[in-house]
Design goal:
CATH superfamily of the largest domain: SPOUT methyltransferase, trefoil knot domain
Number of domains: 2
Structural class: alpha/beta
CATH class of the largest domain: Alpha Beta
CATH topology of the largest domain: Alpha/beta knot
Order of helices and strands: EHHEEEHEHEHEHHEEHHH
Bound molecules: adenine
Largest sheet: 5 strands, parallel
Strand order of the largest sheet: 2-1-6-5-7
Shape: elongated
Length: 254
């Protein structure tokens, strides 16, 4: 999968892209990220990329010309692939959206900055606007990395274990079950007996129940979109009858 990233701050990307799984994905040829500095596409002496907004109100707005020039100069006119703008006003990024975006072989991402981009960029260049959550960051660079990371781990072959992405929180619509590794006992806290039993069917059922429990306790709204088996439903009913509650928040439960 190839990403063309358009940004005023290309220097923030390599430290993350050149580490861990994203680094390996690039080495193995699964991922290519081309960074384009929007400032390189300015034509004025001072390389201006932003100006105050018409109508006043403070803040700065990214000018349209360098953004159009950068994207069209790189991807053609019209651009050869979807052009995404990372903005808090966009559609919320979900695993479902990530699964469908992962079908593309090439995506362009514009990382907005300052107060935003000139509306003509959104209207005539951008094909999709995406937000990573209902909070506002100083720019679209971290959201761009979040999107690249989320999509890269869905590329077949990128994760060592091919089932890893399928088992993730959200992949099945449920939050993931708890994980344990060695040592068997730490500060008196033991790994649940069942996980050491070697009984795979029972382990699978325990994990499924833990996923159901977590989802019910932390994100109950996710359960309403799912087709649950009778066994799942029975477990959830038992939970409700027992009235157990774990808000998934340490300070609230201490
Ligand atoms: N830019 C600033 N905040 C953002 C957010 N929450 N999502 C995407 N882009 C952003």
């Amino acid at each position: 999968m190839k990403f063309d990233v358009f940004t005023l701050f290309p220097e923030v990307f390599p430290p993350y892209l050149d580490s861990s799984i994203l680094h390996r994905a690039q080495e193995m040829g699964y991922l290519q990220v081309d960074l384009h500095n929007i400032r390189d596409w300015t034509t004025d002496k001072h390389h201006v990329t932003d100006e105050p907004p018409y109508g006043g109100g403070g803040g700065m707005v990214m000018k349209p010309e360098p953004v159009f020039a950068a994207v069209e100069g790189t991807l053609g006119d019209p651009p050869c692939c979807p052009v995404i703008l990372m903005t808090p006003q966009g559609e919320l990024l979900t695993q479902e959206m990530a699964n469908s975006l992962a079908e593309y072989s090439r995506l362009a991402i514009v990382a907005g900055h300052y107060e935003g981009v000139d509306e003509r960029v959104r209207e005539h260049l951008i094909t999709r606007e995406i937000s990573i959550g209902d909070y506002v960051l100083t720019g679209g660079e971290l959201p761009t990395l979040v999107l690249i990371d989320t999509l890269t781990r869905l590329i077949p072959g990128v994760l060592g274990n091919p089932q890893a992405a399928e088992k993730d929180s959200h992949a099945s619509g449920l939050l993931e079950h708890p994980h344990y590794t060695r040592p068997e006992e730490y500060r008196g806290w033991k790994v649940p007996e069942i996980l050491r039993s070697g009984h795979h069917a029972k382990i699978d059922r325990w994990r499924r129940n833990q996923s159901l429990r977590r989802t019910q306790e932390r994100r109950a709204e996710l359960l309403s979109n799912l087709d649950l088996s009778d066994e799942d439903q029975e477990f959830l009913n038992q939970l409700k009858d027992a009235g157990s509650f774990d808000p998934g928040n340490k300070s609230a439960s201490e």
